[in-house]
């Protein structure tokens, strides 16, 4: 068992699925390059399901990478599709 698996096994007892889902939503929302308005997250014993749409295939990969980096995530089912109609979050320039 590698260190990552060991850390995740310990986290399973420390964080609820709903808390993990909230943490994932917060992490995605903080990424100014993503429009997370149509991303739906569900968690079952540390396994994350991602559903909905993002703007580009690149965004789909960014979401997956972001979720993979969160402690407590055991695996991901990425059902996100991409649609060019979804745009990035507006970025203000001062």
Task: Describe what is shown at a glance.
The protein has 94 residues and is of the alpha/beta class. Helices cover 37% and strands 21% of the residues.
Describe the protein.
By secondary structure, this protein is α/β, with parallel strands linked by helices. The protein has one domain: Alpha-Beta Plaits (2-Layer Sandwich), CATH 3.30.70. It is 37% helix and 21% strand. The chain has three helices and four strands; from the N terminus they run ααββαββ. Strands 1, 2, 3 and 4 form a four-stranded mixed beta sheet that branches. Strand 1 and strand 2 form a beta hairpin. The N and C termini lie far apart (49 Å). The N terminus is likely disordered.
Q: Write the CATH architecture name.
A: 2-Layer Sandwich
CATH topology: Alpha-Beta Plaits
Mean pLDDT: 82
Structural class designation: alpha/beta
Protein name: BON domain-containing protein
Pfam families: BON
Domain BON: 16-84
InterPro entries: BON_dom (IPR007055), Lipoprotein_DolP (IPR051686)
Name some characteristics of this structure.
94 residues; alpha/beta; BON domain-containing protein; Lipoprotein_DolP; BON_dom
Topology:
Layout: H1 3-12, H2 17-29, E1 39-44, E2 47-54, H3 57-68, E3 75-78, E4 81-82
Parallel strand pairs: 2-3, 2-4
Antiparallel strand pairs: 1-2
């Amino acid at each position: 068992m590698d260190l990552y698996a060991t850390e995740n096994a310990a986290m399973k007892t420390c964080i609820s699925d709903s808390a993990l889902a909230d943490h994932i939503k917060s992490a995605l929302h903080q990424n100014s390059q993503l429009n997370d308005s149509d991303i739906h997250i569900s968690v079952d014993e540390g396994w994350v399901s991602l559903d909905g749409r993002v703007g580009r295939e690149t965004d789909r990969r960014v979401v997956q990478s972001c979720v993979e980096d969160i402690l407590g995530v055991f695996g991901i089912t990425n059902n996100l599709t991409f649609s060019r109609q979804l745009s990035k979050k507006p970025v203000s320039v001062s």
